[in-house]
Design goal:
InterPro entries: CCR1-9-like, Chemokine_CXCR6, Chemokine_rcpt, GPCR_Rhodpsn, GPCR_Rhodpsn_7TM. It is built from twelve helices and two strands. With about 350 residues, it is an all-alpha fold.
């Protein structure tokens, strides 16, 4: 929620520069609310469906289920803060100082919870594929440590989010904004946040998925190629949504002169909005690709009476059931997405 760049004092008083700045503010007032609304609607719907399936239909029988329950919960709490930011981006911040601190803290808490959970999902899939037999034999022990890790993720994320809570405040610029300034937070804290929020998940994906790909290439079965495609999709989406914004954050925290450049502020806005899309894409990438989850999802759709209105014929449902049955009988131990 980067609002600090609205200070007109950062910009040149030349007519061209002032005009460019006003054009940027007009773009931001239109672009940000649009992104917030899209992410809120899609993220609320997708993550709520995932939670509903796990709560009512899919018991938490594995470590994977634990992480896939924690991930949409974190994303759901994040998207619930977006209506406040939507109103503030259109008008100004009217919710008070303490609400500002709480929402900045909630936003940051759930960002790091989500990213650390993605890291754990990656490592869990690595163990499930590369050490499949060992993972199966130690299922009870892994469940215990999975619960411990889930709690540790939330506590760690809360601690890492404290600077945003402490330094968050309402400032009066051209309008009242809720923000915090990077230059108020110690460099070591910013480095820790960047490590947990980007470099650690990226390192986990590169190392674990590289070994998983090597393992799958030596495996047999129809699931191999599908699993490889999903791996490339997961890594590709992560890089596309997270790399640009984190690079911009890194530049902003090390080169203060960029704060005075309107073009750089465009980069901040666009890359941050791109990073928010993870809240919409996570349910698809980490839950709906699982055959077991999809089966339980269709049970939910059927039980709430939506299936006839969606135009699905009985023939299509029988074909889908046949595919799931075939997949469950042919899947190998090295398949990572039979969740």
């Amino acid at each position: 929620m980067d609002e600090e760049y609205e200070d007109p004092g950062f910009f040149s008083t030349a007519n061209d520069s002032r005009q460019e700045h006003h054009q940027f503010l007009a773009f931001k007032r239109l672009f940000l609310p649009s992104i917030y609304v899209v992410v809120f609607i899609c993220g609320l719907l997708g993550n709520s469906l995932v939670l509903a399936v796990y709560i009512f239909y899919q018991k938490l029988k594995s470590v994977t289920d634990l992480f896939l329950m924690s991930l949409p919960l974190a994303d759901l709490v994040f998207v619930c803060t977006l209506p406040f930011w939507t109103y503030a981006s259109i008008h100004e911040w009217v919710f008070g100082k303490y609400t500002c601190k709480i929402l900045l803290g909630v936003y940051t808490l759930n960002f790091y919870t989500s990213m650390l959970t993605l890291t754990c999902i990656t490592m869990d899939r690595f163990i499930a594929v590369v050490q499949a037999t060992k993972a199966h034999n130690q299922q009870a022990k892994r469940m215990f440590w999975g619960k411990v890790i889930c709690w540790a993720i939330w506590v760690t994320s809360l601690l890492v989010s404290l600077p945003q809570i402490i330094y968050g405040n309402v400032s009066s610029l051209d309008k009242a904004v809720c923000s915090y300034h990077d230059n108020e937070i110690p460099t070591a804290v910013l480095a820790t946040q960047l490590t947990l929020g980007f470099f650690l998940p990226l390192l986990a994906m590169v190392v674990c998925y590289s070994i998983i790909i090597k393992t799958l290439l030596h495996a047999r079965g129809f699931q191999k190629h599908k699993s490889l495609k999903i791996i490339f999709l997961v890594v590709g989406v992560f890089l596309l949504t997270q790399v640009p914004f984190n690079l911009v954050k890194l530049v902003r925290s090390t080169h203060w002169e960029y704060h005075a450049m309107t073009s750089f502020q465009y980069a901040v806005i666009v890359t941050e909005a791109l990073a928010y899309l993870r809240a919409c894409l996570n349910p698809v990438l980490y839950a709906f690709v699982g055959l077991k989850f999809r089966k339980n999802f269709w049970k939910l759709v059927k039980d709430v009476g939506c299936l006839p209105y969606l135009g699905f014929s009985s023939q299509w449902k029988s074909e889908e059931t046949s595919k799931m049955s075939s997949a469950s009988h042919n899947v190998e131990a090295t398949s990572m997405f039979q969740l």
